[in-house]
């Protein structure tokens, strides 16, 4: 392992990913290789590059949704902690890292039937043993900041609009205090007012020393939140068109 600053929370070392399509005669689709960068506490690193270059795949590997083909994904919650390598972690270790070290706001909310919006948001706090009334109160404060009408709190989000679902998803991801936070286009279906709220929430996390890695297609949002941009084109494993 290379040397890292005490502030470093997330390190990718020579990470590679390709997909094999077993339904189409085992076609091999290389996506990225030699992906190497680090994210420090208090930084917002934005993944850049054209559509299909592998930005979401990188986030999914870091969260353990996609297997890591080669290299290391090192993460730790605080300066003195040893790094855990997600690339070789067991499912149980991945579960523990997700509870305490790395949070993820995906593009789409996976709504659970019959569970109210308030409980969907509060659930990560329930899982940490926070008293239900206190967890729901914190969830309501965040939903109110995100302008979700109070009339919707007790309804399951399945029938909500795209922007309403996204705000429930953001509230769920931002409610906990994970030291590393992954954001996959959190502002994609939001209006200007709510985009501003998300930018503020990101700035607050950053101030508290969270290491943030995100994808933002919206140039304005990217300009407001990014402390650094990592261009994923530099790690593309595909042949360039002549
Ligand atoms: N589960 C999968 N199975 C097969 N191929 C996949 C899978 N996930 C991603 N890919 C392929 O990997 C490539 C990179 O996809 P990815 O979603 O990471 O790109 P991206 O840079 O995030 O794109 P966008 O900006 O359009 O969201 C694409 O060619 C995609 O088709």
Task: Briefly say what this structure is.
With 242 residues, this protein is an alpha/beta fold. 33% of the residues lie in helices and 24% in strands. It comes from Jiella pacifica.
Walk me through the structure:
The protein is of the alpha/beta class. It has a domain at 1-101 and 212-242: P-loop containing nucleotide triphosphate hydrolases (Rossmann fold). It has helices at residues 55-62, 91-100, 117-127, 132-145, 162-175, 192-207, 219-225; strands spanning 8-21, 27-40, 44-48, 70-75, 84-85, 102-105, 180-184, 211-215, 228-231. α3 (117-127) runs parallel beside α5 and α4 (132-145) packs across α5 (162-175). The longest helix has 16 residues, at 192-207. The chain is globular. It starts with 7 loop residues before the first strand and ends in an 11-residue tail after the last strand. The mean pLDDT is 92. Bound molecules: adenosine-5'-triphosphate. Residues 19, 29, 31, 51-57 line the site of adenosine-5'-triphosphate.
Question: Low-confidence segments, ≥5 residues, pLDDT <50?
Answer: none
Q: Which topology of the domain at 1-101 and 212-242 does CATH recognise?
A: Rossmann fold
Principal-axes geometry comes out as globular
- Write down the secondary-structure element order: EEEHEEHEHHHEHEHE
Q: DSSP strand (E) fraction?
A: 15-25%
Give the overall pLDDT as a whole number: 92
Question: What is the count of DSSP helices, taking H or I runs of 4+ residues?
Answer: 7
Biggest sheet, spatial arrangement of strands: 6-7-8-3-9
- Please tell me how large the radius of gyration is: 18 Å
- What is the CATH homology-level superfamily of the domain at 1-101 and 212-242? P-loop containing nucleotide triphosphate hydrolases
- Structural class from helices and strands? alpha/beta
Estimate the helix proportion, in percent.
25-40%
Biggest sheet, open or closed, and with what strands and sense? 5 strands, parallel
Measured between the Cα atoms of the first and last residue, the distance is 37 Å
The CATH level-2 architecture of the domain at 1-101 and 212-242 is identified as 3-Layer(aba) Sandwich
User: Which compounds are bound in this model?
Assistant: adenosine-5'-triphosphate
CATH class of the domain at 1-101 and 212-242: Alpha Beta
Protein name: Phosphonate C-P lyase system protein PhnL
Keywords: ATP-binding, Lyase, Nucleotide-binding
InterPro entries: AAA+_ATPase (IPR003593), ABC_transporter-like_ATP-bd (IPR003439), ABC_transporter-like_CS (IPR017871), CP_lyase_PhnL (IPR012701), P-loop_NTPase (IPR027417)
Organism: Jiella pacifica
